[in-house]
TrEMBL record:
InterPro entries: Aldolase_TIM, FBA_II, Fruct_bisP_bact
Name of the gene this protein is made from: FBA1
Tagged with keyword Metal-binding: yes
Comment on bound cofactor: Binds 2 Zn(2+) ions per subunit. One is catalytic and the other provides a structural contribution.
Protein name: Fructose-bisphosphate aldolase
Amino acid sequence: MGLLDIVPAGVITGDNVKKLFDYAQEHHFAIPAINCTSSSTVNAALEAARDQKTPLIIQFSNGGAAFYAGKGISNKDQQASILGSIAGAYHVRSVAKHYGIPVVLHSDHCAKELLPWLDGMLSADEAYFKDHGEPLFSSHMIDLSADPKEENIRITKQYFERCAPMKLWLEMEIGITGGEEDGVNNESADKDALYTPSEDVFEVYQALSPIAPYFSIAAAFGNVHGVYKPGNVVLRPELLEQHQQYVRKHADLDKKHPLYLVFHGGSGSTEEEIKTAVSYGVVKMNVDTDTQYAYLAGVRDFVLENKNRLMSQVGDLSKGDDDDTPNKKFYDPRNWIRHGEKTMYKRVQQANTDLGNVNTL
Ligand SMILES: [Zn+2]
């Protein structure tokens, strides 16, 4: 039985997300979560997943969402981030089912000072739920990993209680993902905090599992955001298996991998590291830095190759152009932006391949 026999195409929520994650664990693959900042990047990711016949996770970061709304809108009280994530969500909901693949719609890291953003999205989820019987988003992330553990778990639990009636998923982070992303800098974090102990993961499990099963955990195993020189990062994916077995034993569970784990800072990781993490029950891997670079590459190469044609609206024989016809077909954004979409498409497909997520429908 294939994935499309158990979940529909388009944005999925609640139990369908659970079915997807269980299916991924059983079939030993994980789904890339692609950070998107525009309808163009959303479409490139959807097209890539459709052509490889795979499910996909699309996510908006706080800054990415503000960009989606428009840099001209003030982000006072998180208004641009709230508006942009909702606009992005409606775009994804409008087009996703036409690509014929299941899509998880997610929002990325939300630290304590950004909680008004999460509150705004949750209000949109509740309004959507009233009309449609499901939330607008499939899931959100809350990231209080910079706060003391007790505080992290206490506030995460409160938010999870608000999500649960909608079967809205919540991803949380315990331990710190190193590096820098979306303006949050953990480059000087304490090295021990980069490796979450199993006891802490179990505490999260104990706090959240009585409420609902719809949660996932980003536990730190030396992973960092961004791409650094080789050797800078010591990944210990075996910690993930330890967490799984610790929870399994202490909660007396049958399931081989009871936790839905999330791999942050996937950009720059080796194929082997990714494979190992997936074999330990990782269901989602975030990809941002590498797809940003890929999107640029197509635009950059197009501009460099057609530099002359882009310097004026009409070809100029005196400047070495072949003819003096209009250059519109070069500078039309549908042309040069499409080149960025094509190179991003390839990078999304590479992430899928690394995660074993090819022909998984
Ligand atoms: Zn992250």
